[in-house]
Specification:
The protein has 149 residues and is an alpha/beta fold. It has a five-stranded mixed β-sheet, with helices on both faces. Helix 1 runs parallel beside helix 3.
């Protein structure tokens, strides 16, 4: 018998002057459940170029952390960069030309923590999902924005 995958949706909201917000959702009994939190800007408060990447990684981290070990997962995100990084399994962003070189250490740390959560899963299938036409993505997008205010 094939195990049914667990679907998760996650999103991050980056506001340069405010808090960072992350949210993730799953379905339980056919209904969406959403969790969210504000995350301190910390080292990324002035790094416009990578702030959104950071919150996407943190949102993914929390979504995966909420699942049992060895889960079969379908992860819905609106970040193609995150999908690329998690699929390749290395921090390819450090090779990009960037004006925000100082942002890379906290970004790399967030990547490593997220990759460790991914590695706890039996499998993760990444699904690029726009929030305009997907209820789960709409919910996490709104919750992440609310958490970032």
């Amino acid at each position: 018998m094939t195990e049914q995958p667990l679907h998760i949706w996650f999103d991050g909201s980056y506001r340069q002057k405010g808090a960072l917000g992350v949210a993730w959702a799953w379905k339980e009994g056919g209904k969406f459940q959403v969790d969210s939190r504000a995350v301190a800007n910390g080292d990324l408060k002035d790094y416009e170029e990578h702030g959104s990447h950071y919150v996407e990684l943190v949102a993914c981290f929390h979504a995966l952390k909420s699942l049992p070990d060895q889960s079969v997962v379908v992860a819905h995100t609106d970040s193609q960069d995150l999908i690329n990084w998690m699929t390749i399994g290395q921090e390819v962003f450090t090779r990009r030309k960037t004006k925000d070189r100082a942002a890379l250490p906290p970004l790399k740390k967030a990547f490593e923590h997220t990759l460790a959560q991914k590695d706890r899963m039996r499998s993760v299938t990444w699904q690029l999902t726009a929030d305009k036409n997907n209820e789960g993505m709409q919910l996490v997008h709104e919750a992440a924005q609310t958490a970032s205010t």
